[in-house]
């Protein structure tokens, strides 16, 4: 067994001691939980149990590969779930414990390269959207009726779930700087269609 594998097993054992890790020990059963959108939003599902199996079968070629999967467990949870949920907070707690244990075991927790690339691309795309465009969209969204607003929220939850922040039970915050350019354009299309439909029809 490689030396890093010993430390990796130790890290998993420490994480499993926490009661909060229970929900992360096996794959998300999205059918049982009735969340059919899960595989559409989470492109690479992973859990601590699967990571342990991968580690035992020497699937990881480096400690970085192993740590990226650990980080992905927390990232996936935070991407799919709202900040106000218990499972989101459990992921935040376990992520902090991961960092603490890595310092203790002298392991480094890297950011997922894939996630970093996606985020960088998103921000680069959104740089081409002017502040005025973002402001206009924000002001327009505030005037939309409930049905159109729900349609926009559904699109954001599907395409850029990380851009939605739940403030309380009936309020959410949409972070336009975080959404992808594709999602921004999709929202604009919905707004434009809604505006056209609301215009008075000309008589023949």
UniProtKB/TrEMBL annotation:
Family matches, as CDD domains: Bromodomain
GO biological process assignments: chromatin remodeling; regulation of DNA-templated transcription
One CC-aspect GO term: chromatin
UniProt-listed Pfam families: BET, Bromodomain
Entries under InterPro entries matching the protein: Bromo_chromatin_reader, Bromodomain, Bromodomain-like_sf, NET_dom, NET_sf
SMART domains: BROMO (SM00297)
Keyword flag Ribonucleoprotein: no
Record keyword Cell cycle present: no
Classification via SUPFAM superfamilies: Bromodomain
Keyword terms of this UniProt record: Bromodomain
Bromo domain sequence ranges: 16-88
Protein name: Bromo domain-containing protein
Species assigned in the record: Stentor coeruleus
